[in-house]
Amino acid sequence: MLVRRHPRPAWRTETAPLPSLLPHRVATLSVHTSPLDQPGAGDAGGMNVYIVEVSRRLAARGIAVDVFTRATSSDLPPVVEMSPGVTVRHVSAGPFEGLGKDDLPAQLCAFTAAVLREEAQHEPGHFDVVHSHYWLSGQVGWLARDRWGVPLVHSAHTLAKVKNAALAEGDAPEPRARVIGEEQVVAEADRLVANTADEAAQLVRWYDADPRRTLVIPPGVDLQRFSPGDRQRARQRIGVPADAVVLLFVGRIQPLKGPDLLLHAAARMLADDPPLRAKLQVLVVGAPSGSGLAEPQRLQELAVSLGVRDVVRFLPPQPPEQLAEHYRAADVAVVPSHNESFGLVALEAQACGTPVVAAAVGGLHTAVDDGVSGRLVAGRDPADYAAAIRGVLAGRELLAAGARRHASRFGWDRTVDSLVDAYAAAMVEMAQQPPVGSRERSARDAVRLLSGGSAAR
After folding, report:
1. CB under 8 Å to 180, separation ≥6 — which residues?
2. Which of 53, 173, 392, 411 is 20 to 30 Å apart from 105, CA to CA?
3. 3-class secondary structure for 203-216?
C-alpha cells in the first residue's frame, strides 16, 4: 500500500499572513459534553473550559458563537445565552439520559440533522466556520462543512491511538470505530488544531495528517481568575490548617488521570517520614468519570488499604473561584495522568503560584517547565513521585516564582489570536478554491468580501 509521506513541519502558533477575512459567526460543535457542565465530573474537563473561554473571547471581538451540544435532560431549555454573543443550543439526539460516549455514534445522524436545520432557518452564509471538538463532533462538522461550503477547523483534544498506547490499568481500549472516525476527520478538516508540538507530530505520524494544515495553538489560562494570593487566607477559606503540608489533585476520578498514584506516593512519604502524618493533607477534588463510574468508591477503598484515609479529603468538583482557592492553599499540585493532550489543571495551579509534580507525558511537557515551575516524573513508581514532591517542597519558593512566570505565557487571548488567524486563513483558502456544489454561494460571497464588496447574509 502506498503511504503518503509528509516532510517534518516547522510547527508554528500562527498561520502565515493572508488577506484579511474574518468570520462573523462560528458554529462550535461539542456533541458529548456541554460548556455549561461543571468540569471535573462526568465527561466535563479541560475541553469544556477551552470552549467556554474561547467562545467568550471570540464574542468580545464581535465574532458570534453558536455552541451545539447534545441535550442530556428534558429540563434543559433549547437555547441558553451563555454570555453576550455566545449561544448554547441543546440538541435532542437520542434519550436524554443513560448514554455514554460509546453510545453516541448511533445518534450522530439525529444530531447532524438538527444542526443543519438550524442553519437552514437563516440566509445562506449564516456560519462562516465550523469548529469541532473531539472526534464525534468532527464527524458532524465534516458534513456541515460540505453542506454549507465553509471550512472545518478541528480540535481532537485526545487521540485514540495515543490513549491506547498509554492505557491505564483498568481502562478499556478505545474502540476501532473511534480510530476510524478520527482518521476520517483528520483527512477532511481544513485545519487541525493541536495543543502542543508533540500532539501535532502524533497527528502527522499516526494519522497521516497534512503538516501544512496542522497548527500548534496552545490552550490558555484565565490569568485574572487563577492568580497568586495569600496562602494562609486561602487555607482558612477551605478549612486547611495553617501548618499543613497540602498535596492537591484536581480532575475526573478515573484510571487515565492516575489519582491512585498520588495516594501510593503519599503512603510512601509517610512510611519514610512517620511524623509527617501530623501535617500531611491530600486533597482530591473531582468526581468519578468514564471507567471510574464502574467502581465509584475505588479510590476511597484504596486510601483505606494503604493506611492513608485519615490524611485524604475527597471533595466534589469546585466552581472556578473556589477551585482557585484550593490551588492557592496547596503546597504542590500533582498531575499523575497516564496521558494528557495538554493539562490545564497544571497550568491553573501554576498561575496561582503553586508548583506542580506531573507525569512526563504528552502535553505536560509543555504545560510544566521541568525544574523551573515544577518537576516532571518519568515512569509510574510511587517512590519517584514521593521524591519529586519532597524536592518541590524543599525548593517551593523558587519554583512558585517560576510557576507564575511560566503560566503567564499562556493567556487565553493569545490562544484566540491564533485561532482567529486559523479561521481567516481557512476561509481565504476555501474562497480561492473552485466552487463545487453547495459551496458555490459561500465561495462567491467570500471572494466578494476579499474584493471589498458585501456578501449576502
Report:
1. none
2. 53
3. HHHHHCCCHHHEEE
Instruction: Return d(Cα 427, Cα 384) in angstroms, integer.
Output: 49
Amino acid at 91: V
CA–CA separation, 181 and 288 (whole Å): 26
Model pTM?
Answer: 0.85
pLDDT, one tens digit per residue, over 140-181 is 999 999 999 999 999 999 999 998 998 877 778 999 999 999
Q: Where are the beta strands (DSSP E) in 340-406?
A: 356-359, 374-377
Spatial neighbors of 315 by CB under 8 A, at least 6 apart, are 283, 284, 285, 286, 326
DSSP code string of 214-267 = EEE----B-TTTS----HHHHHHHHT--TT-EEEEEES-BSGGG-HHHHHHHHH
Set of cell numbers at residue 228: 497568586
Residue whose C-alpha cell reads 493541536 in the numeric block: 194
CA 327/CA 325 separation, integer angstroms: 5
